[in-house]
Design brief:
By secondary structure, the chain is mostly beta strands. 8% of the residues lie in helices and 46% in strands. Strands 1-15-16-17-18-10-2-3-4-5 form a 10-stranded mixed β-sheet. A 4-stranded antiparallel β-sheet has the order 6-7-8-9, with no helix packed on it. A 4-stranded antiparallel β-sheet has the order 11-12-13-14. This is DUF868 domain-containing protein.
């Protein structure tokens, strides 16, 4: 009897630096369309502190015509009624343009949290999340918990924040949510595991001719998914395959891609259509896309990652 990974490998796509070309010899052609705009990005981190206490921290970056900034919430916003967003920073506000500073907070469980940030030299690309020249540090009970950014020297790290311990919490990125709006072209970067590399991810919905240029041929929407400029998934006749899933291998991991573009085609109530794309890693021992909650929590040390893209197609 074969193992589950070998069974999956027959009907899945292997994505790696060395093997991408074996699947598609032609790189994804860069379309003339400008990619959709990122409106907000939320990263959910899991912290394991020195006393083995676990804490979820969600950092959300947002950008619109009137404001730009970030917020930090603690706890599980979906299941914890006490979870909140006690820290918000709007760098475009007329009343609060403090791009560097600190703030002391107190959580519901009496934990003391201090947030340090410096966005004064932050550099951005197209999205709301800075790419370099910044830092955000979250300390929990005088322990360094979460560190985001690059604008801080390692040798001065502990001295700068005057912590009483040199211990840094173990941090894992559990999920990333991106909200985009514009056309049907979406680009982002994703790291599917803590030890993996960053991959360029592109999703594009385009109309293609099914008859190869014949006179009576018809056109149909096609969903193309590219990783590192290589086509790994193509879904033809998307209006009838508006929901589905397919498995690929990335950095030696099983990654399920699930899509739901129903509202792009069948939502007459609104001029805007919403679609959801989800990349989710799983162990090769998992034979199903979704495990029961009790089974999923048996292996507490296993960290899975999910990337969700909420795409709004404006008419």
């Amino acid at each position: 009897m074969r193992d589950i990974v070998s069974c999956f490998s027959e009907n899945s796509v292997n994505v790696s630096r060395s093997s991408c070309s074996t699947y598609s010899k032609n790189a994804c052609i860069s379309p003339s369309l400008v990619p959709s705009t990122q409106n907000s990005v939320s990263n959910v981190y899991k912290l394991v502190l020195f006393n083995l206490k676990q804490l979820l921290i969600t950092v959300t970056w947002c950008k619109s015509h009137s404001n730009q900034g970030f917020s930090i919430s603690f706890g599980d916003n979906n299941h914890d009624p006490s979870a909140s967003a006690p820290f918000r920073l709007n760098t475009n506000s007329r009343f609060f343009r403090k791009k560097k500073g600190s703030k002391l907070l107190e959580l519901c469980d009496d934990s003391k949290v201090e947030v340090f940030w410096d966005l004064s030299n932050a550099k951005y690309e197209a999205g709301p999340e800075p790419v370099e020249g910044f830092y955000v540090v979250v300390m929990v009970d005088s322990e360094i918990g979460l560190v985001i950014g690059d604008n801080i020297a390692e040798e001065a790290f502990f001295k700068k924040f005057k912590t009483s311990t040199n211990h840094v919490a173990k941090v894992s990125l559990l999920s990333r949510r991106e909200h985009c709006s514009g056309n049907t072209l979406y680009t982002t970067k994703a790291q599917f595991c803590d030890t993996g590399t960053f991959h360029d991810v592109m999703l594009r919905c385009s109309v293609e001719n099914e008859g190869g240029g014949l006179m009576n041929s018809s056109s149909s929407p096609v969903l193309s998914v590219c990783i590192d400029k290589k086509t790994v998934i193509r879904v033809k006749r998307l209006q009838w395959n508006f929901r589905g899933n397919q498995t690929i291998f990335v950095d030696g991991l099983l990654v399920d891609l699930l899509w739901d573009v129903h509202d792009w085609f069948f939502n007459p109530a609104s001029s805007n259509g919403y679609a959801v794309f989800m990349f989710r890693t799983r162990s090769g021992l998992d034979s199903r896309l979704w495990l029961e909650e009790k089974t999923a929590h048996k292996d507490k040390d296993r960290v899975e990652f999910s990337l969700l893209i909420y795409a709004c197609k404006c008419s």
